[in-house]
Amino acid sequence: xxxxxxxxxGHKKIEFHINTDIPxxxxxxxEKEEKNGKSLYFKxxxxxxxxxxxxxxxxxxxxxxxxxxxxTEEEDDEIPSEFISRxxxxxxxxxxxxxxxxxxxxxxxxxxxxxxxxxxxxAKQVQEKDLKFIFGRYVDFQSEVERNMFDIRLMKEGRMKGxxxxxxxxxxxxxxxxxxxxxxxxxxxxxxxxxxxxxRPKQDANEGKRxx
Length: 212
Description:
Alpha-Beta Plaits; RBD_domain_sf; 11% strand; nucleus; four-stranded antiparallel β-sheet; alpha+beta; single chain
């Protein structure tokens, strides 16, 4: 009775009303950021794919290297420097038009292919070492067989003066020598290179006539 009795108070509900709607300004900014993020992502992807394509990553066929060009020159590089190079041969060789002006090429015939070649119209000062310098490029001197087959016979006297017979390892080497050295100007005179005549076909023909 002395103290006042507290009045019964019912439970009060406390409610917080939060607006879930995002302000228009914030919403626009967030959309822009999302779009920018996507565009940056796709831009990154495009740049990386371009870099991959440019660098050749994943390509089956790589770009050709400069070594391919060197393969065409390997053959000439293998020839020792003590012999004439292909460039010098071509440089000092007469063209077909120029050959026609010389009487020595008037009725030119290469002859029947074999491993020996015949060279004529040689200058007086030509020596065996000069012929070796030119025709030695068609011989593999590391091979004992080819080295022994290489033979130079230069005629310096009599009717055969200014002519030479050169034995090469095989018919292929002789054909190449004829093609590249015919018309080469040595001491201001163009060489006439042909296949050396062989007496064997005539003998075979005579034998055939006898059998008949």
